[in-house]
Amino acid sequence: MRRVLIVGAGIDAWMTAAALATATRGLAEVVVAETGPPPVGRIAALPSLQGLHARLGISEPTLAQATEARPRLAARYGDAIEPFGETGVGIDGVAFHHYWLAAGRAGPLTDWSLAALAAARGRFAPPSPDPRSPLSTLSYGLSLDAAGYAALLKRVALAAGAKVVEGRPDADLKVDASGGERLLVAHEPWTDWSAWLPTGVALAEDGLISTFAPAPARTGRIIAAMTGDTIAVGTAYGAIGAGDGGDLHLLQGDVSRLIALFPTGPAAVAEYNRLAQSALERARDMAILRWGDLSNPPEPLARKIEQFQSRGRVVTYDDEAWPESAWIHAMLARGIIPQRWDPLADRVSAERTREMLSRMKAMLGQTAEAMPRA
Amino acid sequence: MDPIRKIVIVGGGTAGWISASGLAAVLKGLPITIELIESAEIGTVGVGEATVPHIRYFNARLGLDEADFMRKTQATIKLGIQFCDWGRKGEAYIHPFGAYGHAIDGLPFHQHWLAARARGEAGPIETYSLPIMAGLAGKFAPPSSDPRSLGSTFNYAYQFDASLYAQYLRAYSEARGVVRTEGKITSVQQRPDDGFVTSVTLEDGRVVEGDLFIDCSGFRGLLIEGALQAGYEDWTPWLPCDRAVAAPCASVEAPTPYTRATADRFGWRWRIPLQHRVGNGHVYCSSYVSDDEVARALVENLDGELQQDPRFLRFVTGRRKKQWFKNVVAVGLSSGFLEPLESTSIHLIQVAVTTLLELFPHRGFDPADEDEYNRVMDLEFERIRDFLVLHYHANQRDDSPFWIERREGPIPDSLAYKMALFRERGAVVGYKDGFFLEPSWLAVYFGQNILPHGHDPLVAASDPARTTKIMADLAAAVTRTVDAMPTHEAFLRAMAEMRTPA
Fold first, then answer.
1. Do the chains contact at A310 and B369, CB–CB below 8 Å?
2. B4 versus B433: which is more confidently predicted?
């Protein structure tokens, strides 16, 4: 492990540099050939980004100052709202949405999501660590100023020892973090996903409920993330046009995986490629479900849809980015309604279920009402 | 939706009564009747006497009182399995229910251990494992619930009399309304149009109808194979052992809090110490050795006096192609067979029952339920299979053609890439579903001399002196904690004296 050259710009390049320089602690020389201007506008991030920030030593105040970070509790795709965090509370091992189905869907499922209720009221509070508090069901993403975020990551990277270089010096490992330009991997064979994902999405309106609108994207992936001494991360490897935080999450996953499986030989490369492909394809499936063409979905998504439609079961595989509740809301948003519910939900009488649901909804509404204005 | 009203469990034994108890406990409150048919004439296999920690969660779901359960099943504690003579003859290691050390600077403990070992500054890997050191010292105390405490870094299971467990769960099930019918099934009736099972007929002419049938009839798979011909996937090219002989003997010493699996020339022998006796058996490959020779080897290696004549059984390692087919769910030996090398028989039964409850059907039997159940169970079986194959493949023995062929024979691709990654840099492939996490893979790799050529390059960023000190402190803390634990025997005595709440 001697020199790592990162080619690219903006968040892709600087997140890679910051994470590699921090993790390698001087073992590797991390150099960045910066290729383009900083990004513009605001971008959306998922709750998972907070884990990366903890490893990079980026505190919330630092982030807030550098990026004008604002919390977001839910996302809007078209007419549908998809909240973060948990929705309702399961009983006796049976997930909440089965009780909601059993009680005849008395209102949208988001009525039992504290995040959705708070967002609709313009209110926000951080999640509580106390599992008995309804606030513990909350989880939030962020919206960030893209240029400010890239600059912050660059500062972290430089402080951890990364350097900016002119030209493209020789290196033991070359990282293509140039997004859709694919400066190092442009010649690699391409698998096209445009039939499933003719467009991507981008942040159209910031707020506690962030709204996403279609945006042009050339979706697909190169065959292998890592070949020879070159590895493509983020959009340079695969593009699903997930401006809803999905792209950033995939980039973060690529960088963490690169650190965990820093190439030592063919087995590490093979395992990196296997995991990168599976993480990208699982995120792709969610992108298709949210804004893609569902007429002929890829097999793993087809199975997920079939299981949800049949009995409300959420199938998750290894390497999934999204929690069960995200899948439930996304399915319902596309009009995929379970034909049955778990028969074990019938252990509770219909009347008690209805009572329980209305009590829960009232309690969540009061909790949301008591949260401070954002 | 038309709900299930009647479940018929075909066969008692361990699988039958675990199924009955799990279904009765969870389906309580629904208008479903459960009937179990068993025949005293048909013996049960009942050799699965060692378990894995998941049994504790299953028992908890039933609401069993641990002290009462342990008394009634003659249970002892199991902290892991000791494997003797697997890598080379004369070697031994324990596969523990717990982790080796803790992450240092964000990297797995064993990566630092590999680097420290290369510097000559590491002790044997087991000195950093609390369950291994406690097991070897014959000590036990329940795990701590404080996640910061060393005492929370392990889990445990039981070694017990499986037929007593079946009896215990029978009493539990009958108290919760499960109807037991004594009788031998002579025929199975199916719907002419789609082959769904409608009823079974007993020798005395009684007809038992049902909506959902649980096939716990053992190897023969009376419904799943006999009636439905679901088919069987044969895994003997990877796991060629096809017979076992079992015999209990008297105890001559305090029970060890671990099971032992000793590799022999044509298979391996198990030793499972219970409170009142020791269970023994020998799994072998009949094309290499005669039944008599194996039985002789088993009897020669007993701790104490033989208590029953050796019993033989035959099996074909593999898996039913559809463990759930139409309205029949195969649970236990009817669903497939994996030798008890990692004590997974009862585990697979309990996963089957839990998964069936997660996907509990209605009378229309949507094929989606069957599909999803089979996907989950296939993965469960395959991942255990690969882990078992690793034990056979990773050997350096030259004393019998059996072991040389296991080492040189084919292994599944799904195992080969995991081993290649471990050999290259000591990384363990993880997965979300299925059994056996990183510490289990490490135990077998290290214990059977699969040592990586390298380690995680980022280890070099940690200060070696500091790492060495952290490791030494941990080993000392393990020793101190083990010293402070009561003996396994004292723990069992205390459990035996504990009063069970009425």
1. yes
2. B4
* DSSP letter assigned to residue A111: G
* CA neighbours closer than 13 Å in the CB half-sphere of residue B396: 11
Q: Is B78 a catalytic residue?
A: yes
Q: Does A38 score more than 60 pLDDT?
A: yes
Q: Which of B78, B322, B326, B418 is catalytic?
A: B78
Residues in chain A: 374
Instruction: With CA atoms as reference, report the closest residue to B282 among B297, B303, B300.
Output: B297
Using a CB–CB cutoff of 8 Å, tell me whether A1 touches chain B: yes
Q: For residue A264, give the nearest of B360, B433, B457 by CB distance.
A: B457
Residue (of B145, B123, B146, B118) closest to B478 by Cα position: B123
How big is the CA angle at B217 (ends B212 and B222), to the nearest 5 degrees? 75
Domain range list for chain B:
6-75+160-235+317-383, 102-154+389-484, 243-314
Nearest to A25 among B366, B424, B461 (CB): B461
pLDDT band at A254 (very low <50, low <70, confident <90, very high): very high
User: Is A2 near chain B, with CB under 8 Å?
Assistant: no
pLDDT in the model for residue B134: 98
For A94, which residue in chain B has the nearest alpha carbon? B358
Interface of B with A in 84-123 (CB under 8 A): 106
Residue position matching structure tokens 């280890």: B459
CATH classification number, A3-84+140-282, choose in 3.90.1150.10, 3.40.50.1000, 1.10.10.10, 3.50.50.60: 3.50.50.60
Q: Tell me, yes or no, if B454 comes closer than 8 A to chain A by beta carbon.
A: yes
* Complex prediction ipTM: 0.94
Contact B193/A at CB under 8 A: no
Q: Is the pLDDT of residue B396 over 60?
A: yes
- For B243-314, CATH gives 3.30.70
Is pLDDT of B401 > 60?
A: yes
- CB atoms under 10 Å from CB of A169, counted, come to 11
pTM for the predicted model, two decimal places: 0.96
Cβ-defined contact of B424 to A316 (cutoff 8 Å): no
Helix/strand/coil percentages in chain B, nearest 5? 40, 20, 40
Q: Which of B368, B429, B458 sits opposite A311 (nearest CB)?
A: B368
Residue-level pLDDT at B431: 84
Give the model confidence (pLDDT) of B297-317 as tens digits: 999 999 999 999 999 999 999
The 10s digit of each residue's pLDDT in A80-107 is: 999 999 999 999 899 999 999 999 998 9
For residues B15-28, average pLDDT: 97
CATH 3.50.50.60 fits B6-75+160-235+317-383, yes or no: yes
- CB contact under 8 Å between A268 and B421, yes or no, is yes
The per-residue pLDDT for B500 is 61
Q: Which residues contact A349 (CB under 8 A, 6 or more apart)?
A: none
B1–A267 C-beta distance less than 8 A = no
